[in-house]
Specification:
Elements (H helix, E strand, L loop, with lengths): L6 E7 L3 E10 L2 E11 L3 E2 L2 E2 L2 H19 L5 E6 L5 E10 L7 H12 L7 E13 L2 E4 L9 E12 H13 L3 E7 H9 L2 H6 L1 E6 L4 E6 L7 E5 L9 H23 L8 H19 L12 H4 L1
Length: 306
Amino acid sequence: MARKSPLVIGLDVGTYKIGVIVAEVAEGSVEVVGIGTAASRGLRKGVVVNIEKTVEAIRRAVEEAELMAACEIRSVIAGSAGSHIKGFNSHGVVAVRSREVASGDVERVVDAARAVALPTDQEVLHVLPQEFIVDDQDGIREPVGMAGVRLEARVHIVTGAVSAGQNLIKCCNRAGLHVRDLLAGPLAAAEAVLTPEERELGVALVDLGGGTIDVVVYQAGTAGARRARAAPPLAPRPRRGDRAARRGDADARQGRDRARRVLPGARLRGRADRRRRGARAHDGARRACLPAAGAARGPASFEQLG
C-alpha cells in the first residue's frame, strides 16, 4: 500500500546491536511505524572490523523493520560512533557585501570557519554554528537582515575517520542500501532526547554504548550550541581474561556469602587469611630457633631445638 507521507529510515550501527527505525513524517510530526534490531558481531568499539558479519546483521535488522512497517527499504541515514569521532571549535570572518546580512553572507562565513587544515585520514561530518557576531555585537543567533559591515561566526566542527565512514557505507551498499547521509551518532541521540529548553539552559548527554562512551555538551547561553564533543576510548566490555578473573572472584564471594548464611558465625578463610597464617607460622619457627631468655650461650643442640 502506497503511503501519502514520506518515510525516513535511520540505521544505527553499534558494537552490540544494529537498529533500524522507520518513521513517517506528517504535518511536522514524526510517527514511528517500524523497528528492526539484530545482534552485531562485526564491530569493535563502534568501528567495523568484519564486513561480512556486519552486512549480515544489517540485512536481518532491515528485514525485521520492513515486515513491521510493510515497506521496502532502499536508502538510510546512517549513524557513526566511536573514538575516531572528534570535535573542535573554529572561527570565520567575512565582509558584508550590501551592508545588510543576507543568507549568502551566512553561508560564506560558515564556509570560512570550516576551511581548516585536517589530517588526511579525517573528514568533516558536521559544522554546527554556535553564534554569530555582527560588528562586535556577539550572541546573535539569526543574523540575516541585520545591518553591518563585518560578520563573524563561531562554529563547532565534528570530524570522523575516513576509513570508518567508508567501511560503514560499503557494508550498507553490500546489504542493498544507499546511504543518503552519514551522521555522528551521539549528536543524533542528543537531537532526539533533549528539549530546546534543556539545550538553552546547558546540559551534558552521556551515551553509554556497548563499545564506546560518547559525551555531548551544550553550553548555556549560546543557542544550545555544542561547545564540546568527545568520545573517550573507553570500552565497557572487558577482555576475556579479565572477564574470567572477575567471574571467578564473584563466584568466590557468592560462595562465601551462602556459607555464612548456612553457618552463622563461621569464619571463612580467604587469600588474605592464608597470607596472615603463613606469616604467623614463619614467625613461630623463627622464635623456636632463638635461645630462650637466660639460657646458656653456646651452640644449640637438637634437644634444645626440639
